[in-house]
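Now produce a polypeptide, keeping tokens residue-aligned:
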Amino acid sequence: MEGLQSVWKEQKKMKMGYTTGSCAAAAAKAAAYMLLSGEEVRQVSLMTPKGIRLYLDIEEITRHPDCVRCAVKKDAGDDPDVTHGVYVYAEVSRIGGTEVVLDGGAGIGRVTKKGMEQAIGEAAINKVPRRMIHESVQEQREKFGYMGGLSVIISIPDGVKLASKTFNPRLGIEGGISVLGTSGIVEPMSEKALTDTIFLEMKMLRESGYQWCYLVPGNYGSDFLTETLGYDGELAVKCSNYIGESIDDAVCLGMKGILLIGHVGKLIKLAAGVMNTHSRQADCRMEVFASHAAMAGAAKETVCRIMHCITTTEVIELLRKEGILEETMRTVMEKLEFYLKHRAGESLQIGAIVFSNEDGILGSTTEAAMILERIQCSSLENRRNEQ
């Protein structure tokens, strides 16, 4: 493979890669070329939507008079992509008519819920990869003056096994993975892929009739929602560290309200207006606790001890011993609510519940109970409509 450069991420030189969509388009181009020319090809060039030209090796070639199958090996560069190293196959065969008909084969998931780029029942090959595949095959038809129809089947045999490591089961894609990519290029440690998934997950809920939902940063919040509070985890969107972006998504999609439920170790940062809670963005946990403890009457010695704590569990225990945990969390939640509402604006109602594994609920915002009730009512109403 040629044509890719390295990029600098967090003071490291890291190699870019290429998407499953680029692999599928290149394999389809090679298969169409071999079918229509009768000649074997071991490398093809592919211009990606990003404007980077790739030169990709063609492997696993099987040729028949009316059908050719070949593969491109995925290279995700230095991005931690579960599809790195898998073979993406394209099988191109002659069919009646004049159209290029694209579908997914083994290891390509099928859409089972509304809100995806493809309709229910279709192969999970996203819009940009579909266009790249069609353009690559059409280029070969025109090159060889072939006016007949062609069938293009994309498959990733390892896709069924890999699907469990992706968001696909949660998004309603069953039987395999998706063929993805909007630029054709994988940039190392790309955050966009994750934020796009968060948006899509919320969009699917919205298009299924839900205007109220839960927002949980990860498994702690999800487990607390379902196991401790006993509420419906199907109405929860996992937002990872991207709380601000997820609030923006809710506004963009016209959601009426969201309830954020998360561990104190992560959500405490919101009280300082930090909307990306990853530690490399900011770690103001102890500063927030120390300032609010001081407002609750903590002595200088206590404030200093808080600043030297390593975990929020230590802080909670210290505040409890000092008898100021409740007052500290009261003002923390006030500030947290202020920043959430400031980000959400006027069109979205927003609330939060903060908990710890040892103590359960530590605080909730003023509208949390109301939003919780709205989510439950919305869930019951939608289920009645579906029956």
Q: What stands out?
A: Confidence is low (pLDDT under 50) at residues 6-13. The longest strand covers residues 87-95.
